[in-house]
Model the fold of this input.
Amino acid sequence: MTPLYIDAHCHLHSFNDERIHYFLSQNFFIIAVSEDLNSSIRSIELSKLSSRIYPCIGIHPWEFSEETEREINRLSNLINEISCLGEIGLDYRYGKVSKEKQICFFKKLIRLAVEYDLKLNLHALDSWRDVFNMIVRFDIKKAIFHWYSGPIDLLKDFESKGYFITINPCVRFQKKHSKVLQHSPLSIILTESDGPYEYKGVSLEPNLIPELINYISDVKEISRRDLLRIIVRNVSKFLDMDISKLKSQNIKNRSYKL
Ligand SMILES: [Zn+2]
Done:
């Protein structure tokens, strides 16, 4: 049986139609994150193509502006169509608005998650511990820290809370991230592409996941097969559904116009 590859953090809406159809024809399960209102609407539309696309809506911390408050209100109209917010969080390195403002907007989004019992797909660059403390305070049960390259000692806290991290293909050359992989228990690991994104000459996209699996299986000294099984189990736990049961080629509506 062809294995199912997990991309737990992908900006699917930013790929062109041809590429999206290609990913759908391959064995990928994609958690499709959004950055603003328009991409949120598009992620929801894309999820209607296949049960292998899982939509998240949200406002990326890089997109925070004077409009954010109004945008969050409009976003809340889409909430009954989804069960995950992302990509949301804080970014103390590249954020364009002040730390205080970011925290204020992020809190509003977390409150929505609490009210509607939503999972979180998180961006927490240089704010790892703050984001962790905030979601713990709000008693968030399900969260993914995407492309985790924060403090190693937080990994055990993630494990005890049942939170997950994603490993990105750039782990091959990104020192901090590779240290994270070495120290992470397999029970908290998911794979991601964060595509389409150019990072240091690498064009990130779901197609890099099979190679990433090879790399992780070498580092963690585990067979590819067992690793894939663990990652499918982890994502199923995060989503509260057994994704190994999803049939291949499960495209709900082939004539759906992208
Ligand atoms: Zn992202």
The longest strand covers residues 5-10.
